[in-house]
Write a structure and sequence with these properties.
With 450 residues, the protein is an alpha/beta fold. The chain contains 16 helices and twelve strands. Helix 4 packs antiparallel against helix 5 and helix 7 runs antiparallel to helix 14.
Length: 450
């Protein structure tokens, strides 16, 4: 096994940067960095050491820590170097470690080694990625629960019951002259039905869990000068977008994240949709159409102080193909005479003022409404990963097929196919039966240095 190195802190200037080494040559490389071949570090103790260049000059003073295998994050010998966060210093230390026979780690390679060395299972490893990427406190809570092993524990009873039924059926195959008693078959069917319910209940939490993790993509659209950027700023509580009374001010899409009741919402402010001869504005309009295609929900902003224009109707016609809300802006001004009658027949309306903030709470409730009631605070363990959800559904289906075959008095060998498949699907969630290619794909989504 080779020795890997990576920076575990974000790039750029900072007070401190953390460089991690993992592998059999970690301590040897540290000795070379400090120019002390006799240095024998004591595990789990922090020491101040000088980092020395190839020319023998002091590069930096750094805090170094040594974690001996198997009592480390990866289960291998590990060294952590906390140096000053100048990109120049970090780059030089990285170059020196590579010169001393370390190689740069790939995305998630430290966590992958921890997984392979039995320091954690796959769901716990994925939870580290989710915790780093969490955009709300509710998402962080779910990632922490998974990191503590709750998902593995939740799956364990179903796996144990499946193994028990499989052992019974495998034993029956060994003694083909004896049929299983009807009472025992009925008892096994009841246990399999219970397993189905357990798996289904866990899978059904995905509708809430994936919202906490992935959030909602929401695009604010409309013709020019109806208040899209003002509403964008009001929702962000920040003057992020430039606002003027000149139509076409917004030339490019802006995206920022907010949290609504613990749900991360990715808001995109878009250029006003209209026909234009301005090349730059036309590019902005094209990007608006892309944002519409990518959005889970559209907020169509119209100017409530005037009558609807043909451009408004064109935007509304396009939005009708997607889940959307119509935000009737400028409710602090006199309303257009027939605007409500024209809109209320086909769309959900929210009256608001981007200027004063009136109606904003109604808008936030309307944004979440299409996705069902989400109790992010009172929720228990939730399935947040589409991979886990897919495997749970497959396991549930396989158990169901086995129950149907038992009802039809099919042979044990046929019933066992479905049960073995179900056990394999559950094992893929925690990594016991996951292929090397799938592991590589999963860990490619991790940060380098983690």
């Amino acid at each position: 096994m080779d020795t890997i190195v990576a920076v575990a802190t974000p790039s750029g200037r900072s007070a401190i940067a953390l460089i991690r080494l993992s592998g059999p040559r970690s301590v040897d490389i540290l000795r070379s960095l400090i120019h002390d071949e006799q240095f024998t570090p004591e595990p789990n103790r922090v020491l101040l050491k000088r980092m020395i260049t190839e020319a023998g000059e002091v590069l930096d003073y750094a805090l170094v820590s040594y974690f001996a295998a198997p009592h480390s994050f990866t289960g291998e010998d590990m060294v952590e170097i906390s140096c000053h966060g100048s990109p120049v210093i970090v780059r030089q230390i990285l170059d020196l470690t590579q010169m001393f026979d370390a190689r740069l780690a790939g995305p998630g390679e430290f966590t992958l080694r921890a997984c392979k060395n039995g320091k954690m299972n796959l769901t716990e490893a994925e939870a580290i990625r989710d915790l780093i990427n969490a955009r709300t406190s509710a998402a962080a809570v779910q990632a922490t629960r998974q990191l503590s092993g709750e998902l593995s524990s939740a799956l364990l009873p179903s796996k144990q019951q499946l193994i028990s039924v499989i052992v019974t059926l495998e034993s029956a195959l060994e003694f083909v002259e004896d049929d299983l008693p009807q009472v025992q078959l009925a008892e096994m069917q009841a246990r399999l039905a219970q397993i189905q319910v357990q798996i289904k209940d866990l899978a059904d939490t995905y509708s809430t869990g994936h919202l906490l993790r992935d959030g909602i993509k929401c695009a604010i659209i409309g013709r020019p000068n109806v208040g899209k950027s003002s509403l964008f700023n009001r929702l962000l509580r920040l003057d992020r977008a430039i606002v003027t009374d000149v139509p076409g001010t917004t030339r490019d899409s802006l995206t920022e994240s907010i949290s609504l009741q613990g749900i991360p919402v990715s808001l995109t402010d878009t250029a006003g949709i209209r026909k234009t001869g301005d090349k730059i504005e036309a590019i902005g309009v094209e990007r608006t159409h892309r944002a519409i295609a990518d959005a889970d929900l559209l907020i169509v902003v119209v100017d409530g102080s005037t009558e609807l224009l043909p451009e408004d109707l064109a935007v509304l016609s396009q939005a009708n193909e997607t889940s959307h809300i119509v935000a009737v802006n400028k409710c602090d001004l006199r309303q257009g005479s027939d605007i409500v009658n024209q809109l209320s027949r086909q769309s959900r309306l929210v009256h608001l003022s981007a200027l004063t903030g009136e109606g904003l709470s109604a808008l936030t409730a309307a944004i979440l409404e299409p996705f069902g009631r989400v109790d992010s605070e009172g929720a228990g363990l939730l399935i947040t990963d589409s991979r886990h959800y897919d495997l749970l559904r497959r396991a549930q289906h396989s158990v169901g097929q086995a129950v149907e075959l038992m009802d039809e008095r099919a042979g044990e060998e046929l019933v066992l196919i479905g049960l073995h498949n179900a056990l394999r699907f559950l094992g893929e969630i925690t990594g016991e039966t996951t292929t090397e290619d799938l592991l590589s794909e999963i860990f490619s989504t991790f940060c380098i240095g983690k």
